Amino acid sequence: MTAASHRTAPEHTHPDAVPVLTALAALADPVRLTLVRELASSPEWSRACGSFDVPVGKAALSHHFAVLRGAGLVEQRDQGPKRVNRLRRAEFDARFPGLLELVLRPDRCD
């Protein structure tokens, strides 16, 4: 068995179950915002966890992805030895119309 086969599948929260303050808190962190922005500009399921340009270690990155999953923003699945990600944009937009659009706009101030 490989190391990937010993991993448990991550739990995902559907955006319909997410309070607005949880969503805003998840998007308020600069590292998580970078993850969301990079996912938004990538094809679904094309980004492995280690492929993001963020200044944190593996444990912190795992925590940030857990927060994003808990806020209904990200879905993850194991693909061979890697865990790949997708932004749950359609589902999140249905729950919070316009929120991601505002966050992802290139002209917004950080």
From TrEMBL:
<dbReference type="InterPro" id="IPR036390">
    <property type="entry name" value="WH_DNA-bd_sf"/>
</dbReference>
<protein>
    <submittedName>
        <fullName>ArsR family transcriptional regulator</fullName>
    </submittedName>
</protein>
<dbReference type="Pfam" id="PF01022">
    <property type="entry name" value="HTH_5"/>
</dbReference>
<dbReference type="InterPro" id="IPR036388">
    <property type="entry name" value="WH-like_DNA-bd_sf"/>
</dbReference>
<dbReference type="InterPro" id="IPR001845">
    <property type="entry name" value="HTH_ArsR_DNA-bd_dom"/>
</dbReference>
<dbReference type="GO" id="GO:0003700">
    <property type="term" value="F:DNA-binding transcription factor activity"/>
</dbReference>
<feature type="domain" description="HTH arsR-type">
    <location>
        <begin position="12"/>
        <end position="107"/>
    </location>
</feature>
<dbReference type="InterPro" id="IPR011991">
    <property type="entry name" value="ArsR-like_HTH"/>
</dbReference>
